[in-house]
């Protein structure tokens, strides 16, 4: 395919050191890396997939009140969102508020590309080492998996510390890119992007920059002739779960999102729900803090501190997904009580005339399980492979 280089000089200082909050350790390749495990799987019917998914669109009654979270159906001035037209204005208000807190995105890339480099066969799939345009003057390495045939196929962006895990060359049960490719998806797996330091205005918070990177990756995927640009989703686990959540909420290029146990709201009782850290939302040019849960001697910093002061939480971002479907694959960090913030996204969908757009599965462990992964894959198969609309009757 033709490769178009991005020209010009970035209007920012770019540090090429890889941004990852903790280096993933190299491990022996898992059994899923063998060619035998890269065979295509038989498609499942819509009815079969919906039978797997339906129970997970129904919040338990004890969490139906929405808790203490402020309704996203209230404007900043306290007035009520009453119509879908009101919601469009409120949606823009939420976006403007959060971008104002986190710092402005760089200029959008008009025509980002995926440069195909080395290729190899993995069973029925073709694997490419690629370079993707992610920001002005910046490329990033990834791994592309292509199913057999001409397409156009649905696609998934898979985000994690590094791409090898996502394609089955590291830890087991985190190989979302490989398993979705076996189900008929083009998958692009990438790791944490380089640091980006804007020279003017509020510092761009790393998690927001990661969403910007994902937005450009989705645009680059849509430029591939094998990809249906209307059927692109994003998925990640833990660090990648946070990334996938911000990406899908802030970019409408994603038709759906699946967020695996990243911590979907702020929670200073959980050390792994660490949005306060400078590699997520706590970046501060004037103050540096030690890693760990905020305390009086180690206070909050950056955009995160302002968000807490203003009593904001991430359920406001969840609401931006409506009416696009999303799945929370919850584990140790996202327990059933996380339905309290999620019911606010359900309320927005109902205002817009949609049911069954907000789902959560639950497991005991932080790490994915075979069952939780099958539910996640069923979600992508149902909403992207079949492009199915969920039943209109209340499951929620």
Outline of this structure?
This protein has helices spanning 46-53, 84-102, 163-166, 176-181, 206-222, 239-250, 302-309, 315-319, 339-351, 370-385, and strands at residues 13-18, 114-122, 125-135, 138-146, 153-159, 186-190, 194-197, 227-237, 256-260, 326-330, 358-362. It is of the alpha/beta class and 396 residues long.
Describe this structure in words.
This protein is an alpha/beta fold and 396 residues long. The chain folds into 2 domains: 40-191 and 212-265 and 313-385, Rossmann fold, CATH 3.40.50.1820; 266-312, no CATH class. 27% of the residues lie in helices and 19% in strands. It has helices at 46-53, 84-102, 163-166, 176-181, 206-222, 239-250, 302-309, 315-319, 339-351, 370-385; strands at 13-18, 114-122, 125-135, 138-146, 153-159, 186-190, 194-197, 227-237, 256-260, 326-330, 358-362. The strands form 2 sheets. It has a 9-stranded mixed beta sheet, sandwiched between helices. A two-stranded antiparallel ribbon has the order 1-7. Strand 10 (326-330), helix 9 (339-351) and strand 11 (358-362) form a beta-alpha-beta unit. Helix 1 (46-53) crosses helix 10 and helix 5 packs across helix 6. The longest helix is centred in the first third of the chain and has 19 residues, at 84-102. The protein is globular and about 55 Å long. The N and C termini lie far apart (45 Å). The model is unreliable at 1-33 (pLDDT under 50).
